[in-house]
Amino acid sequence: MLQLYNTNHIKVCALTDYKDYYLEQTINNDDLLFFSYPIYGMNYDRIQFECYIQNGVNEYVIKEINVQGAETGSEWVQVVCKINLEDLKGGVLTSFYTEKQTALDTANLALVSVGWEVLSSDVTSLRNVSLLHCSVYDVMSEIAKAFLCEILYDVINKYVIIHQKIGAERGTYFIEQLNLKTIQSQGHTNDYITHLIPIGKDNLGIAAVNGGLSFVSNHQYSNKIITAFWIDNRYTDETALREDAIARLAYLSKPSRAYSADIIDLANVSTEWNILDYSLGDFVTLISASKNIREKQRIIKLTRYPEEPERSTIEIVNRVASLVDVLVTLSDTTESVSNITNTDGTIVASSVNGQLTNAYIATANVGTLDATIANIGDLLATKALITDLVAINAEIDALTADKATVIDLTAATGRIGILESNSATIEQLDVVDARITNLVVTTAMINDLAVTNAKIADATIMEAKIADAAITNAKIENLAVTSAKIADATINTAKIENLAVTSAKIADATINTAKIALGAITNALIGTEAVDTAQIADGSITDAKIVTLTANKITSGTIDAAEINVINLNADNLTVGTINGQRIADESITTAKIAVGAITSDRIADGAIKESQVNWATHLLF
Questions:
Q1: Cβ-count burial of 343 within 10 angstroms (0-12 exposed, 13-18 middle, 19+ buried)?
Q2: Which has the closest alpha carbon to 261: 188, 172, 175?
Q3: What is the torsion angle, in degrees rounded to the nearest 10, for the CA atoms of residue 450, residue 455, residue 458 and residue 459?
Q4: Which residues of the chain form CATH 3.55.50?
Q5: What would the pLDDT profile of 456-487 be if each residue is shown by its tens digit?
Q6: Closest to 297 measured CA to CA, from 189, 172, 192
Q7: Cα 278 to the center of its chain, rounded Å
Q8: DSSP string computed for 496-518
Q9: Closest by CA position to 163, among listed 148, 176, 174
Q10: CATH class held by domain 86-163
Q11: Contact 283/298 with Cβ under 8 angstroms?
């Protein structure tokens, strides 16, 4: 099932009513996806240029919408999609250069800027890659050429897979009356050679590493001697140049044979035929008895119908398609431009002799340039040694100068390691770290000041917030402190308008007037007669405030008996006054309370004792 995403990469819908869906893959070419959709389909209006299609394996961009003829009363459009490499094509590089690096390191260096990476690489050789004004995609294409390798892209996971050769040798075969329907063949020897003379940068040859010979040879098909030059200025190493020359000649020293076959993808029909499965780059065997063909070649192009396996096709050749890009010039060729150009299109300086009156050169790599006068509109120099430079206006990103004499300097931002200046007038100075031996400042506004040790003769500070200060001696005329924690303070005279003290230990304090709302005094020494009745308000001492009161403290006044409860009263202490019968409860005085002989006849009033009150059995009066 195909999934449709709009140009903002938001999923729109799943497409179901399509037909003729197939994939086309070619080694080191962008993969293509095709399908047809009815004009009157429910999602036809949503299929637009530059929308995205996912098939569960990779992602593609819609590049073509072609209207087809009427079929069974309805019209269809063919939609052509190309693998989505927008990230790589949108990543622009001003220049790219690597020297003697692996394909893995070279590719990762380019891919890091677009958030991709190499998942795996089995290429071990070291090569140079150099490009100007290119995209990341251009660099990947150049890597394929420089390393003679092949690249696969996983767009959904943003991975790149690099192989020396994609595919494997599985033993898969295509034979008539089984899975081979038709076969066509082509062959030629148009670029057939047997000797190849490789030349690298600065006329680098291979004689030093090739037994003194400047060429490599291969006579696998014939003993003819047909020589060609191969010039590639990316090579600076003789061994690498020789290795790649041998690899190229292995293809060029035999006839080119290509086969196109219509096949049945049996492995996609049933798992019983997995032995006949195949992929791009695999080596397969073609067997056709009718055309007397039995060839074991490599799949370089694959057209696969995932939902109609009987319609799949393959193309196999004995030489990779990318060899048409190899710079090869036969020995009898004259006026060949490729002999004087690098692989990136620049001119080889050694190929230009004599004086040029007027020449337009897009890009030139010059080892040494001697020019009396040069008018250069825009100069890009990696490194320049100039004895005497007069510049009216210069924009320099990074300047490293051993010594500079500047009469008038205007700098938006300056980062100076060590600055020695006799006199400097600076309107605004931002300094991360400054070490100044002697600083005279008329006015300074400092947002955040960290000072290890400061000696200030006279300072006027409007407002200061000090986290931790150790002050030996301070004379402060007017100090306003919101909150202060003082471990040990000696204050001669202090005028405090409002003092809140949590805990205070005062050895000697003279307080003229103190208003204490609530005070708890654990231990206080108050002078004799320091507190008299004048200091105690009337009625302020209640019973609960008196612990002990002795009688000798009562000198005058009257104590009402109704106000006191006497438990034991010694009669000897009664000096005045009278206790009458109203004060003694009935029957409260018994004989046990009267001493013998204490009551005499003169103590008894006449008529006080009645006859009924006498027990005549015990008391006889005669």
A1: buried
A2: 175
A3: 10
A4: 86-163
A5: 777 777 777 776 777 777 777 777 767 777 77
A6: 172
A7: 42
A8: -SS---SS---SS---S----SS
A9: 148
A10: alpha beta
A11: yes
